[in-house]
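ok here's the first one, seq then struct tokens
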Amino acid sequence: MDEREMTLVGHLAELRRRMLAVLVPLAALLPGTLFAAGWLLDALFSPLRAVGCEVYLYHVTDALALRIGAALLMDGALCMPLLVAQAYLFVAPGLYGRERRAVVRWGLLGGGLFLMGALVFSMVLTGPLVRAWHGSLGGFPARLSGMKCFELWCALTVLSGAVCALPCVMMGLRQVLMSFREGDGA
């Protein structure tokens, strides 16, 4: 690690370089994810169709907005490891050795738990939750908004991942703050 002091302009140049290292792959993957967005939307709406609900697009722009939203979601998910790595490489020179080790250890564990929670919700629990909701409410409305379903699915997927990762994030933050309190960080 380079331990030299940087000016504000130097930090901004480094931030710009790190952001470009993420934005270029994001832009390069976008055409492919736009092509594959239909697959994600079919997988998302299949549990609703399985219980007899019809997903409709109520506004003229819904089809395009759903495809772009699904493409951006896949694009972001594919580039997330690169984003996290670039963020770490940007802040790591300002951390003590013990803080860097804590960020890596708890970040990897927390990221894995976030991914596990998001995947478990989106691939395993979506169908049973839809069926339980359908049964408890005495039936869905005949037509559901595709945009509302997509927004709710995205929010619940992120929430379930965050709940799974929260203990690791809290433990890592506690370890970094304890190191900061001790002052040496070695």
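and now the second one, same deal
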Amino acid sequence: MTGALTEGWIPGFAVVFAGNGKHKIRYSGNKALCPKKEKLTIDSIYDIASLTKVIVTTTLVLQLVAEKKITFDAKVKQYISEFCHSDITILDLLLHRSGLPADRVLNSEWPIEVYKKELYHTPLDEKGKVQYSDIGFILLGWIVESVTGESLSDLSNRKIIKPLNLKNTGYRLERPEEQFVPTEKRSDSGLRRGVVHDRKATYLKGISGHAGLFTTIEDVAIILNSLLSNDSIVFPADYRTLMMEYAENGRTLGWEWRKSSNGDEYLYHTGFTGVFMYVNLTENSGGAVLTNSIHPYRDDMYKERRNQLINRLFEEGLL
């Protein structure tokens, strides 16, 4: 990450490595480059984009499965009657094999009910083929809300954030603007700071199953240690067993899955803003990188460079 910083790929970064109930945090660089440079601090708050899928949505779904309030083989249509695809299950959405496309551009001027109806009638691509889908996790978020009668924001506060005593994590956080790490400066909305970057999450008022969560590297360290614990108060006791049981085609429940060259098995996930998180299931260790690589403007090359870096780390067994 230091090389990425010195070469100007990213404004700054915060990293954590965790294992054996301990963790190490390092941070360097800036959180903002415009309208002026601002130094990164340990309590800087990041938009973690698609890490929302694994930290919030996957966790809440697995909690509901453990509580026998839903099952993996339950049909989506059981919870969303207007959904037009009758054979797609909760498990299909978690494994990104539903056939739903990655995204669908809809009119943000539509009322929410019209927007939902259009999503419910999204044409499928190839069912059974792994295809990463924001739409699938938006639907999972709505299913969780339907089953519990609570918003994702309230439920994640009650079932994840408060039990772990996270200080600066949540949807639509109310904190001083200068504490937030800005993302992209857009021609239509200016600099995104303290508000979610993702356009679909923006339309959904900042609360969605696919994106919208904000957090700090200190809180991510707590999340990682809980993930790695044998008696987590948030993650079900069979969390890691389930992840290994359902691993197929490079994915498992919510997460991506792979083996390194030395045979270690990993969960990992990335987010569009530049973030990355992993769990080494074999060694019971993990880590995360928080950065705002799309600030002040997105550089399409960063995603490629990040993926090359991740592949190298896995191939060399360095994670």
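notes on #2: DSSP finds eleven helices and twelve strands in the chain. The two ends are 13 Å apart (CA to CA).
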